[in-house]
Amino acid sequence: MEKTSLSILKEYWGYDKFRPLQEEIIQEVLLGNDTLALMPTGGGKSICFQVPALLREGICIVISPLIALMKDQVENLRKRNIPAIAIYSGMSHREIDIALDNCIFGNIKFLYLAPERLYNDMVQERIRHMNVNLFAIDEAHCISQWGYDFRPSYLELIKLRELKPKVPVLALTATATPKVIDDIQDKLGFQSSNVLSKSFRRENLAYMVFDEENKMGRMLKVISKIGGTGIVYVRNRRETQEVARYLLNHGIPADFYHAGLDMQSRAKKQDAWTSNQIRVIVATNAFGMGIDKPDVRFVVHLDIPDSLEAYYQEAGRAGRDGKKAYPVMLYQQSDRNELWENIDLSFPDFQFIQQVYHHLCNYFQIAYGAGKGLTYDFDVVDFSKKYKLDVVKTLSALKFLERDKWLALSEAVYIPARIKFEVDYQELYRFQVQSAHFDPLIKAILRAYGGVFDYYVPINEFEIAKKIGKPYEEVVKMLRSLQQQELATYVAKTDAPQLQFLQPRVDYKNLYIDTQFIAERKAIKEEQIKAIYQYLDGKDCRSLSLQHYFGEEATESCGVCDLCVIRQHKSGVSESIEKKIQYLLLEKPLPLHDLIEAIEIGKEEDRLKVLRSLMDSDTVKIEDELYHWNAF
């Protein structure tokens, strides 16, 4: 029986039907059309490229900047017996070489690549020899300078078109303005415009925005009143701990999360929140990507996000089960001021970027004319402290250095230790006989890890140490000794970001940086912040504001956001005031003071407003300073 999209969905994922828009996207891909799909966070984007790729001969290449998410997806595919691998910063040249060979000669169905991998000539050349059936570009907004999370490495993706001009491209993102939508298609070389999107309206989300002096107290009220589990977003790592401690002191099970934690701690905290062992996770924006917890009842922002795109994504982690949920933003005037002041940190001047480059080369002891292709673990906090630089400003400088192809910087991600034996079984056995000290270690590896002669296999040194009854430090020493004797390649674990130099070191005075581009990006950022201010100061409907920002034509108010609720309340109050005025004036004419005092509904300004409206329509008239109900 011929396989269909639905039969693949049922066979590998166990679902009987697709979510909204998934089937239409898959159909476009199967027709070979370049497609841009706009789907909300948690809308099932991965299914849109995984299903058609499984229906076609060849391999699907998936580009994603989120290494942790790539690893999760590879693991989930393997659990379904779908061959998949990922290549990202931190892997050795030999590891990448073997992985790419498997994509050409093996049965690999999905290759996940971090975009900066395309800086590598070897990766490009191997892709040329692959039987590729689809390019899937996740977080596609990152390619646009008009977007909120522009990543220079995404500009390399046009090379995929040059390598495989006939292979269709599926670009996926949760948020994009009309300008970004056009830019994505242009930068990815779409044959013709083809956009499929869901409405940006989330009917079950009641957006709330409050100018609040006591943000902590208001947050506590929100969490206590709404109930269930939720996320509190803050701007920096210190705040995550302070807010989590505040919630714990008020009897709410909470924990904190940020990118500075080691991988094991992050996974433990995330699992505790996902399984409802804790109610609230207090986090920086490092938390949330790839998390599909359906029963999140609230997302509280204690700081204003950098853009409406970021806010929409983070707020959208609430209510994925379709039940009512509350994204709540709490801010003060000082927060608004800080948002604007941070622009200067995000767009450093040319001299500062030169300074960062010079210090960076010295930090890693790179000689002039050397360094091209070298990759290092990189702790930006340690680097900034050593040279007395602002961390945010330094990260911004690194981004512009990456844009002009001086370096590539990946996100922090846990990469486990790996080993591969570089000799055949017979030679390794002879070594075991001659070196009894290494025999238990080698046996433990061969018993626990398959494919170690062919691939780099992830290992756990602590588990090995436990099995052979030796200290962890001695096991690591022995593994390094095997490498020194060229019997194996051992790569130690890391959870640091990876920094790669793409060009030989030059004198900082000869450093080329596109300053015009920086000025353009700064202007874009200013417009994004102005859009946030407009959202905060809105008078109509929060959902409509977001829909209009993303270019969606809509006129119907949501009826559940704070502005709609206030308007409905005022409407109800106005109606009651009008009925009271009619009752009083039909009984007898009254002077203004007596009439207003007798109403006792709403504020005085509301009573006067309704009275003026009734007079404008001649429903109420004034004679000899007495107000009469005009019965016509």
UniProtKB/TrEMBL annotation:
Coiled coil: none annotated. InterPro entries: DEAD/DEAH_box_helicase_dom, DNA_helicase_ATP-dep_RecQ, Helicase_ATP-bd, Helicase_C-like, P-loop_NTPase, RecQ_Zn-bd, WH-like_DNA-bd_sf. Residues 218-364 form the Helicase C-terminal domain. It catalyses: Couples ATP hydrolysis with the unwinding of duplex DNA by translocating in the 3'-5' direction. GO terms for molecular function: helicase activity. Its EC number is 5.6.2.4. It is an enzyme of class 5 (isomerase). Keywords: ATP-binding, DNA-binding, Helicase, Hydrolase, Isomerase, Metal-binding, Nucleotide-binding. It comes from the Bacteria. Residues 26-194 form the Helicase ATP-binding domain. Belongs to the helicase family. RecQ subfamily. This is ATP-dependent DNA helicase RecQ.
